Amino acid sequence: MITSINIKLTKIRQHFPKNGLADVKGEVSKELLRLRPLIKPGGNIAVAAGSRGIKNIALIVREVTDFIRANNANPFIVPAMGSHGNADAETQAQILADYGISEKNLGVPVRSSMDVVELPKGASPAGIFIDKNAYLADGIILINRIKAHTDYHGQYESGLVKMTVIGLGKEKQASAIHSYGVYGLAELIPVVAKQIISSGKIIGGLAIVENAFDDTMLVSALRADEFFEKEPSLLKAAKENMPFIPADNIDLLIIDEMGKNLSGVGVDPNIIGRMKIYGQPEPLRPAVKSIIIADITKESHGNAIGVGLADVIPRRLFNKIDFPSTYTNGITSSFYERIKIPVIAETDREAFDIALRGCGYIKKGEEKVVRIKNTLHLEELYVSDPVLEEIKASGKIEVIERNIGLFNESEFKTF
User: Which residues pair with 389 in a beta bridge?
Assistant: First the structure.
């Protein structure tokens, strides 16, 4: 068996377009003017924020709430994150607080509840629900990042349309939609969103697009009646600026951390080339034989949905899993492969050896190994020599440091 002690890596840097906004605050303020005529003076306006770790999110939420107050209305914040946080109101409020979205930080009340109001179904075969606090307000403004979804692909993936349904609908709506599997996500979400928007409760939303550096690249304030027309072009921009792993064929991929703040399923399937959803085709690239996920972020609160995308994990990660929140999220999604527990190794070195063994026979010195921090931050990563040889001719990478050992004793080196 190949032993991990022989592996040396090279640190490389990828060249992505540096097209982040110079003045995020100013751009948000300018965009929000489009929604000014829709703000009812003296009214109560719900601002919906989700569970993703969006860059500048506290600043952006502050701008939205300040804008509402400047137009003589009263903002409050509602968590719009479906079943996340173990479908618990207090935990959902804490998730927002971890991002700086709290009454203490913003001076705006956070009204977190799992209570919902049922709306007429219209053309939807599934029940339609909306957060009760938001429904009782005089209007709702959504804030969300537009990006490729981790479960399906279509005109509307992660964004304002989906948040209107899954986020605002809490655990009840998430369960109803996910009970239809991928069809529910790809086909029913637009149907349900149109029915919710027809209620007149949604004023609009602030769409955020990030670049490959996780920087805010674009913000766009949309009226509710513009969601369906304009979100597809924003999704196209998001996909064109996604980071990626530069290798097409990998024996072993090491991911230092997974996290709900990084991706809806902890690690982005679009990045690692694994979906693990029955009936859905796997991504064509990268082709990865074996995956180790080494740890989980503190911001995840132990929600390890997506851990099943790995082949091997160290006990360190296993010991941090909060099974109630992981299972609530995973069972709601109905994609059970993603919450199955991989092989558990006692140390990182053991995890490496087990994972590499699972790749089958590889001639010594030809192991294609890639190590990344997470699936959101991919500017800098570590590759073995066979990978470097394949990608260096692209002209889109630079070598930072050679011959880096992988371990300190039995654990991965901290880079």
Answer: none
Q: Helix axis angle, 170-178 relative to 323-333, nearest 10°?
A: 50
Ranges of each domain in the chain: 4-16+243-412, 24-240
pLDDT tens digits for 6-31? 789 999 999 999 999 999 999 999 99
24-240 in CATH: which number? Answer: 3.40.50.11440
- Spatial neighbors of 209 by CB under 8 A, at least 6 apart, are 145, 146, 147, 216, 217, 218, 219, 220, 234, 237, 238, 241
- Beta bridge mates, 236: none
Is-contact 72 42, C-beta < 8 A?
Answer: yes
First-to-last C-alpha distance (Å) of the chain: 26
- pTM value surpassing 0.85: yes
Q: pLDDT tens across 188-213, in order?
A: 999 999 999 999 999 999 999 999 99
Whether 41 and 71 have beta carbons less than 8 Å apart is answered as yes
Do residues 376 and 262 lie in contact, with contact meaning Cβ atoms separated by under 8 Å?
yes
Nearest alpha-carbon partner for 331 in 313, 311, 308: 308
CA distance 403 to 186: 45
Q: How many residues are listed for the chain in this entry?
A: 415
